[in-house]
Specification:
The protein is of the alpha+beta class and 118 residues long. It contains 3 helices and 5 strands, in the order αβααββββ. The protein has a 5-stranded mixed beta sheet with strand order 1-5-4-3-2. The radius of gyration is 13 Å and the shape is globular. The protein starts with 5 loop residues before the first helix and ends in a 14-residue tail after the last strand.
Length: 118
């Protein structure tokens, strides 16, 4: 599988975090909302977890968003003892940062740039 280079992941996260300041959308899917509730956190806390992502949390991407166009980037992070799958997107024409998915991982995630542990 082809992975983005660390600098590309860093660039994506910088742009995502910049857009988040003025235009952030959390796609409210049942699976994500259920996971957030089970973790005992709020949407605001989930957003803060997303803003804490680094290139070491990177799993995969960019991959084509076949339903809406553009690209999706996938990350993982341990929150409250659970591995959480996070899928993010930047919509350049609207300067928007979107969280498409935020749920307990269905299978172990791979972190190509993480030095041991999660």
């Amino acid at each position: 599988m082809h992975h983005a280079q660390p600098w590309q992941v860093i660039l994506f996260l910088m742009l995502f975090k910049e857009f988040t300041q003025n235009n952030f959308k959390f796609v409210k899917r049942d699976k994500s909302l259920d996971s957030i509730a089970r973790l005992g956190i709020t949407l605001k806390q989930a957003k803060q977890e997303i803003l804490g992502l680094t290139f070491e949390h990177y799993c995969r991407g960019p991959v084509p968003d076949t339903s809406k166009g553009g690209e999706l980037w996938e990350f993982g992070k341990r929150i409250a003892g659970k591995e959480i799958f996070i899928r993010l997107k930047v919509v350049l024409q609207h300067k928007m940062a979107k969280c498409q998915s935020f749920h307990v991982a269905e299978k172990p995630l791979q972190y190509p740039y993480k030095g041991g542990g999660k």
